Amino acid sequence: TAQFTSALETFWRSKRSTRRLPSRSDFTPENLRPWLGNIGILAVERAQRLRFRVLLSGTRLDDYRGFGVTGRYLDEICGNGFRSIRRYLACVARGEPVHLVHDNSSNSTVYAQMAKILLPLSEDGVTVDRILIAIYPLPANDGGNLPQNPSALAG
Fold it and tell me: Which end of the chain, N or C, is surrounded by fewer C-beta atoms within 10 Å?
């Protein structure tokens, strides 16, 4: 699990080139193949408040949840008070990757803990307008094996 999220973050960093942030167009299905079923892409919408709309949800992500979420907003999927919102907001505000362990017990009877990485994307290289996410189920007692990252927020 940690090797998948670490490898994706390394790949994300390589796509920045001389920019602060890579863009969505830097990532193709071909070069995301190792992660494809476990990734999603969120649009960052700035109207009256920040909202996150699912543009793409990998097949494994839909399987973990038990239904598809493409086109829906995170606050609709998880409820207005979803606990991870501060991590998504931090990803947007800081423009840095965020690692977290997500309690998925209310959404899945199979996987109680999920490792997530949030990777900011930007068309102008500065303003976060998309978030590339990857989510992997954690085997029992594997919650401590996420990569160390100074921008990660405590669960």
Answer: C
Tens of pLDDT along 56-110? Answer: 999 888 887 777 888 888 888 776 556 678 899 999 999 999 998 877 665 555 5
DSSP structure string for the chain: -HHHHHHHHHHHHHHHTTSSS--GGG--TTTTGGGGGGEEEEEEEESSSEEEEEEEE-HHHHHHHTS--TT-BHHHHH-TT-TTHHHHHHHHHH-S-EEEEEE-TTT-SS-SEEEEEEEEE-SSSSS--EEEEEEEEPPTT-TT-SPP-TT----
